Amino acid sequence: MAEKHNEMECHYLIDKPNRDRVRETVWNKIVNVDSRVETLNEYMTAQLEATARYNEDQDKRLEELKALIQEAAAVQSETDKKIESFEKHLNNGWKTKFMEELTDRLFKMLEVTGGQLFGLKTKQEELKVVKIEKSKIIWLEIFKVVGTVLGTGGIVMALMKG
Prior knowledge:
Blueprint: H1 11-89, H2 94-161
Helix pairs in contact: 1-2
């Protein structure tokens, strides 16, 4: 004859409140991780948009610099012609000094622009590294939660068998 189910000795019913608490804790942690992932995603999106805007500004500045250099080259060509005419009368070396100063200034402008481009590339690389590190942290938290859930289930199973 079949035995009646004894609700007073049923391990399933006895341990149900504990399991429910564990489930609620796990669910809260999952929601927390999801919230953090979404916040991180929003932050990274904003950073990428800011970087894109900065790149556009930098490109505009480079184009302006190129235009200035071309304009300076055109002015330099005109200046060279004028200098040739003056050089016939006055050849005391001022042409060489003027050219050196002009080229030094142009090179300094190019160095500054190059430094800005390098800084921009470095910033982009740092953002990529930060994104990867955040992703690793998120996955570690997920594995901890899953490990806790699996470990808790194993303990409950061991208690039920014991």
